[in-house]
Amino acid sequence: MYQRMLSYDYPISIEQPAHCRYFPAGSPAILFEERGYEFMDEMQRWFDILRFDKGTEILGNKGWTEKFRYFPIDQSEMDRAKGGLTQNPGWL
């Protein structure tokens, strides 16, 4: 048995699976790197880049700008809202 940190702060005593690494509390960089290997070819990696605010660092030389943080709102949805929606920043 060992102490594994879940949600960064709450230790839970469980049996250590053979394939799991121990992540100490407060190590989002290690977690981001590990998830990068695991989800390299999946869309989950994109959401991790946004969640950890690493867009400029990882994708900056590939044309990343802050407008890509949010998807644009479709014009038909904006028309249907009759002025109740405004376009996301960068997509005006």
Please outline what is shown here.
This protein is α+β, with helices and mostly antiparallel strands.
Word description of this protein:
The chain is α+β, with helices and mostly antiparallel strands and 92 residues long. The chain has helices at residues 28-38, 44-51, 55-59, 75-80; strands spanning 2-6, 10-14. The chain has a two-stranded antiparallel ribbon with strand order 1-2.
Key traits:
92 residues; alpha+beta; two-stranded antiparallel sheet; 4 helices; 11% strand
Number of helices: 4
Fraction of residues in helix: 25-40%
Tell me the radius of gyration: 19 Å
Distance between the termini: 55 Å
Care to count the β-strands? 2
Mean pLDDT figure: 75
The global form is elongated
User: Structural class, from secondary structure content?
Assistant: alpha+beta
Give the biggest beta sheet.
Answer: 2 strands, antiparallel
Strand arrangement across the biggest beta sheet: 1-2
Order of helices and strands: EEHHHH
The parts where pLDDT drops under 50 for at least 5 residues are none
Strand content: 5-15%
Chain-wise SSE layout:
Blueprint lengths: L1 E5 L3 E5 L13 H11 L5 H8 L3 H5 L15 H6 L12
Antiparallel strand pairs: 1-2
